[in-house]
Amino acid sequence: MTGDPQQAAVPGATLSARVLAGDPRAIARAISLIEDEAPAGADLVRRIFPQSGRAYYLGVTGPPGAGKSTLVDRLTTALRSAGQTVGIVAVDPTSPYSGGAILGDRVRMQAHAGDGGVFIRSMATRGHLGGLARATSEAALVLDASGKDVVIIETVGVGQDEVDIVRTADVSVVTLVPGSGDEVQALKAGIMEIADIFVVNKADREGADRMAASIEAMLSLHTFAAGEWRPPIVRTEATSGKGVDELLAEVARFRAHTEATRADRRRARAEYRLRELLSHRFVRHVESSVLRPGEFDAILDRIAARELDPYSAADGIFTRGVGGNQAGQETTPALDHVGIAVANLEQALAFYRDALGLTVEAPEEVTSQRVRAHFVPAGGSALELLEATNEDSPIARYLERRGPGLHHITLRVDDIAATLERLKARGVRLIDEHPRPGAHGSLVAFVHPASAHGVLVELKQRV
Question: What CATH code is assigned to 56-257?
Answer without folding.
Answer: 3.40.50.300
